[in-house]
């Protein structure tokens, strides 16, 4: 069982996601870059002031026309000049490794850029050797799309290509034609690409949009979603994605990626599929490699439900049990495609969720800026950059607001750049920034630092068993993390009121390690602890 073996680094890692456009500009062009990331490596690991995370996942830095900010690649074996060069990338890997920090590349497997030389060749004629690298179909009579499949970014998933009159498939923007993963040459090419980066020393891949890599062979129409509410749901959800997403063959793609990394040590693969728990477990079961785990995005679904301990308790208990001790759960509160967690819940509840995230079993992901409480920034229409936004007039899909520059200090442009950044800096940057929060022991930054300190120092918090516990109040989500040697307890008060809880569990008195209220002390009387509104507390036991 996994907690009796020596765990692999990724089985309990905290992985920090960097959105390279917005992390640190080093050359004064208003865009973040690799030298900028290198200059900030001590922030993560290697100094007493570091946060103490285990790895960085860097969103794509490949050459790209940036219609989807790097998720539209024109060369999988190079670095976009906006971000640096291969030499600088090598330096980043070496400098990160010196500090014991791993580097995870983003691997965009479902599609290329329309400007990729492969697509440029493929579109030339129906008999071009690269034609079958992409997915082509004749339009229906009257020039209608071959079927009803929709692009996530809006509109039909098919675009007619004038050179041959056929349509090509794109699950995202028309600039991002889908590769055909049923084609052997495509599969071979990706094995080479994976090898190229592993030879350079990267420690893993976050595999983009893997759920879309294989489609129904017969190209059947997706059924109508009878629960769809126009103007409320995303246009993409008008149909149930029965034939264009999450096909059984996707497991084959995941296995191929894992297989290609087998000869290197301890490579971590995490794949992107937005699926419910039942489907998620099928992905775990289908993949034969222990170094793979699918992202679990189901917390995002909970965010749409009423805020209650019961909902979180039921979800985490169920997920941890379904995953079981031999496999690794993952948890995420935010990423570059979703509204920031602080914007959804406000500071006090976000602190509770941070405590939960960093004390759960498995691999957890922190989106840049979460650790200082960055929030979504309202972007005037003329400054919006997201290609999705220009296609869909649906405010909930705009992704610029969660991608604004990292707030390092109260200096000009929050210390991100000397010139006007590509997206506006949040107005709250004079207060919400790394430098100011470092000087404030009650800040969000300190909460993250302290939680990471405990997670790094405690075997139980890193790879102990997750044990659901019963609290007196149904508003309190209570659990522990346990090895044979130690046990830590977590109480999360989801209510907006004071709640009293027992301090003695199975004859052991709990001792407060840290509260989301930080410096303001908790009151505990004899065997009772008083939790304040939305307070989360971490306890050790004697
Ligand atoms: C998922 C990525 O997270 C998103 O940002 C991107 O637009 C799509 N995949 C397409 O690559």
A few lines on this structure:
This protein has helices spanning about 35-40, 85-100, 115-120, 185-200, 250-260, 275-285, 300, 310-325, 340-360, 385-390, 435-440, 445-455, 460-465; strands at about 15-20, 55-60, 100-110, 135, 160, 165-170, 205-210, 270, 290-295, 330, 365, 465-470, 475-480, 485-495, 500, 505, 510-515, 525, 530, 535-540. With about 550 residues, the chain is an alpha/beta fold. The chain has three domains: about 10-110 and about 185-450, Glycosidases (TIM Barrel), CATH 3.20.20.80; about 115-170, Oligo-1,6-glucosidase, Domain 2 (Oligo-1,6-glucosidase, domain 2), CATH 3.90.400.10; about 465-540, Immunoglobulin-like, CATH 2.60.40.1180.
Features:
single chain, 542 residues, alpha/beta, Immunoglobulin-like, eight-stranded parallel sheet, binds 1-deoxynojirimycin
What would you say this structure looks like, in words?
This protein has 542 residues and is of the alpha/beta class. It folds into three domains: 9-112 and 184-449, TIM Barrel, CATH 3.20.20.80; 117-169, Oligo-1,6-glucosidase, Domain 2 (Oligo-1,6-glucosidase, domain 2, Alpha-Beta Complex), CATH 3.90.400.10; 465-541, Immunoglobulin-like (Sandwich). Helices cover 24% and strands 17% of the residues. The protein contains 13 helices and 20 strands. An eight-stranded parallel sheet has the order 9-8-7-3-2-1-11-10. Strand 8, helix 6 and strand 9 form a beta-alpha-beta unit. The relative contact order is 0.11. The structure holds 1-deoxynojirimycin. Residues 68, 71, 108, 172, 208-209, 272, 336-337 line the site of 1-deoxynojirimycin (NOJ).
